[in-house]
Design goal:
22% helix; OM_lipoprot_carrier_LolA-like; Membrane protein; 4 helices; signal; LolA/LolB/LppX
């Protein structure tokens, strides 16, 4: 899969994690979906920061290719650090740094206008909070064998994301898997293997530190 598409997938992944954990503002049609999402939102609010370990499988219908990789995401409020084999992305709520290891490059951005919709997970999240329609799809079994609820989210307005399918464990209220379907033909399925709460990282953790990457070329796109 081309690097640009992989970058876009990683951005979508960050959006989905942030979106899921702050979804309490979404207006939904099914009462079951409302209560389940409210429980998930409460779990995040009480988490005091979290770390999720996941495996993501991506497929491009256009390029007819697929791949799988492991990663982690640390989230605290509207801040996150997303780590995948090819890239590390830091977001402190305002500025985003994306380090591409292969090229030893760091792209720094503070997107504005329509660019924010494609590059800034926080603004995507804010638009989704009032733009999702949620539907309860029934019950299923999670990859770990636990009982789970299935919920589908569909943006009311035009978006890069066509729909998001969530599998949420009944007992814990935590996500078991997240599937993202994009209009560009890329689909991503995220299976969460482990979730740690109470990971209260300092704010500096979510900021790129140049001293840790002395050989990296910094490309300031601001």
């Amino acid at each position: 899969m081309k690097r640009d598409n992989k970058i876009k997938v990683c951005r979508i992944l960050a959006v989905v994690f942030l979106c899921f954990w702050t979804i309490s503002g979404v207006r939904v049609l099914a009462q079951n979906a409302t209560s389940i999402l409210d429980k998930a939102a409460s779990a995040y609010e009480d988490s005091n920061g979290l770390t999720a370990y996941f495996t993501m499988q991506t497929r491009s219908d256009v390029q007819k290719v697929s791949e799988s990789f492991d990663g982690t995401v640390d989230i605290k409020g509207d801040k996150f650090v997303l780590k995948t084999p090819d890239m590390i992305t830091w977001f402190d709520g305002t500025t985003q740094w994306s380090f591409v290891e292969r090229n030893e490059e760091v792209n720094v951005s503070t997107p504005t206008g329509e660019e924010l919709q494609a590059t800034n997970p926080t603004l995507l999240l804010r638009s989704y909070e009032k733009g999702f329609t949620a539907k309860y799809k029934g019950e299923s079994t999670s990859p770990s064998g636990k009982a789970a609820h299935d919920i589908e989210l569909v943006p009311k307005k035009k978006s890069d994301i066509v729909r998001v399918e969530l599998q949420i464990e009944k007992f814990s209220g935590l996500p078991a898997s997240i599937a993202v379907f994009s209009k560009n033909g890329i689909s991503s399925t995220i299976r969460i293997s482990k979730m740690k709460t109470g990971v209260n990282q300092p704010d500096s953790y979510f900021v790129f530190n140049e001293k840790d990457y002395p050989d990296a070329e910094i490309i300031d796109l601001r």
